[in-house]
Amino acid sequence: MVAALPPHAGAMDRLRAALTGFAADDPLRHDTSAATLHRIGWTLLTGLPIALGGDPHADIARSLASAWRAPASVDAAVNAALVLLIDHDLAVSTFAARVAASARADGYAAVSAALGAADSPLHISAATRTARLLTRVRRGLEPERALAEVLQDGNGIPGFGHPLYAGVDDRADALFPLLPALPDGEATMDAVRRLKETVAARTGLQPNVDLALAALVSGARLPDDAASTIFVVGRIAGWIAHIDAEYGEQAMRLRPRGEYVGR
Q: For residues 214-240, b (16+ Cβ closer than 10 Å) or e, as one string?
């Protein structure tokens, strides 16, 4: 299914197509037992990198990185990112997965609900927006000019600020030290430094994990939308865990009621 997509299809398009293919091929997907859900999770974690063009490998980071023909030297950073992104409170994609699971959607369908919420400029797709911002700076555009251009889409400064952190996102702090060792790591971290200084001076905002992901894909010479792909593959494990937990709750507990207020 992925191969049938047009050349301009983005990372999220390819992930959705692959997910649909795996679901269609699984006649047992409607069984909501923990064993079936865990099998679905493993199918997606190991199968999505291959569906995107990667090589089969016991190391998910290596399998995923091989989809972009990246050298083994990037695997440690990719693996760290996958681990750091497994779960992060009730992000909108995670909540979407739990809402679907509360109606007893199968595992693929609940992950599909999460993926729909993730494909938004203020959630996981922000990682790709940040990568494109960093690419502008690396190509010689002054940080101020790059920021002015990216702000024209009306969705704020990608890669900076997070409602759960007063300062730097802890996940970014954990990932940044691994990046100088990447093929283009030193040049990338210089662009990150200049961008951080400009944003801090003008807004006070600190880096979040999207900037660290953008730096990872830049330093590893991966395409910009690899940032969102790494984010999704890492988060699948967390989504599956939340779906499993929701199956243990009363069905339809996340069906809210509207209240008419006369307006």
A: bbbbbbbbbebbbbbbbbbbbbbbbbb
| Position 97 in a domain | yes
CA distance 80 to 38: 22
In a domain, 260, yes or no: no
CB atoms within 10 A of CB 143: 21
CATH number for the domain spanning 224: value is: 1.10.230.10
262, part of any domain = no
pLDDT in tens for each of the 263 residues of the chain? Answer: 888 899 999 999 999 999 999 999 999 999 999 999 999 999 999 999 999 999 999 999 999 999 999 999 999 999 999 999 999 999 999 999 999 999 999 999 999 999 999 999 989 999 999 999 999 999 999 999 999 999 998 889 999 999 899 888 999 999 999 999 999 999 999 999 999 999 999 999 999 999 999 999 999 999 999 999 999 999 999 999 999 999 999 999 999 989 899 87
Cβ distance 146 to 133 under 8 Å?
A: yes
Domain count, the chain: 1
Tokens 């809402």 belong to which residue?
99
Q: Note whether residue 4 is domain-resident.
A: no
User: Where do we find the tokens 């203020």?
Assistant: 122
Q: Which of 235, 209, 214 is nearest to 93 (CA)?
A: 235
pTM of the model: 0.94
What is the span of the domain harbouring residue 55?
10-252
What value does the CA radius of gyration of the chain take, rounded to a whole number of Å? 19
SS3 (DSSP) at 162: strand
